[in-house]
Predict the 3D structure of the following.
Amino acid sequence: MTAPGLLDRYHAGDRERVWHELRQLGRSVRDDPALAAEAQEVCDEMARRARHNVELLVARLTAAGYRFHHNDDEQTPATPYAPPTPDATAYANWLESTFGEIPMTLRSWIRYVGDVWLVGTHPEWPDSSSGDPLVIELEGSLNPRYGSMRETHERCRAHHRPEWGPFVLAVAPDALHKANTSGGDPYGFLLPDGCADGSFRVDAAMPFVSYLNVVFTYGGFPEITGDDAEWSIRHELSMDLLPL
């Protein structure tokens, strides 16, 4: 009897060990076409589960009267979620041709999840924007007023210098900027990166899937604010979200 493959083990709940093994392989996961294909399937399944979580969070927040808004003084209303556009795969290919190899998890997110913007205000948790709500913007379909994400990434790349370290593909404001205060560097992926799971820079670099699991564990708001209402709200938001 052959040993279960990576995807079968992932479906069976052996997710942490599967991610550990894929991370240990590093970029060499791409050397064997069969292994690379199976690793991409694991990443795709991760993204499908993440999309389920995102859609559930948006529905729950909407039902609770949450106001999705931009991180500006006017609190301009914002759309919380946009699924991938028909150009999503082409956009992922453009990223790889422009910045070098991109992680498989990043490619999967682009193709299966889309853009997410959970910044806003909960009626029973006034400081909810300080909870570091989940934001991942790649195609830029939620904030067209800021221009094309391709143009933004190209401008950042043009000004990047090798001595500054790896290029960071910015996909979200940091926790302070989400709360409309002065903050630090944006969150993003370190590129190029040919691994299955990419390095995602928050305050420090960590695996992207690890970051997402923390976010979903806390109902989309991983930063503890100290507000009395937040724990019951987080608990309700996080119920039955799928681990990745």
Summary: DSSP finds nine helices and nine strands in the chain. Strands lie at 67-68, 81-82, 115-117, 120-121, 135-136, 167-172, 187-191, 199-201, 205-207. The chain has one domain: 48-238.
